[in-house]
């Protein structure tokens, strides 16, 4: 296996984990809660989803051949309105991730040093991937933070529960010892 393939597999895994984390947070919220925002200048989870999906579709459609900021994208509209149903929101969300996963999965080592543009600015493919990873992880954190604020004591942790770090570490050590035997 070459370094380029290792990198592409790693970023695909990281994006899958990001999506899984955001999905786990959103599953805990009702449609009304998905549209709640802490203030006028803040975004709801639903608007963050709309923005992330719009960004992913724009960036990853014809990734190697067209500017990542498509003329059809209206970024400002991504921060307006909402969704009639959870299903409508999730369809938009899934389309964004599907576009990212399909395109990223089709790249090969030779593509990594090619040049692409985002808002007319040239980037290597690696730079564009890293830019997207930063952007999506930023918004994934916002989704989790909002969901935790909304659910408060009803929040179901997505990672290691508070006070359980030692238990988790011990279970991981046991697992890897068994796999190594």
Rg, nearest Å: 19 Å
CATH-defined superfamily: dinb family like domain
CATH class wording? Mainly Alpha
Q: Report the sheet-strand fraction.
A: under 5%
Mean pLDDT: 95
Order of helices and strands: HHHHEEHH
Q: Helix count, per DSSP?
A: 6
Task: Please tally the β strands and state the result.
Answer: 2
General form:
flat
Structural class call reads: mainly alpha
Name the helicity range.
Answer: 55-70%
Low-confidence stretches: none
Tally of distinct domains: 1
Task: Explain the overall architecture.
The chain is mainly α. It has a single domain, classed as Up-down Bundle (Four Helix Bundle (Hemerythrin (Met), subunit A)). Helix content is 60%, strand content 4%. Strands 1-2 form a two-stranded antiparallel sheet. The two termini are 25 Å apart. The model has no long low-confidence stretch (mean pLDDT 95).
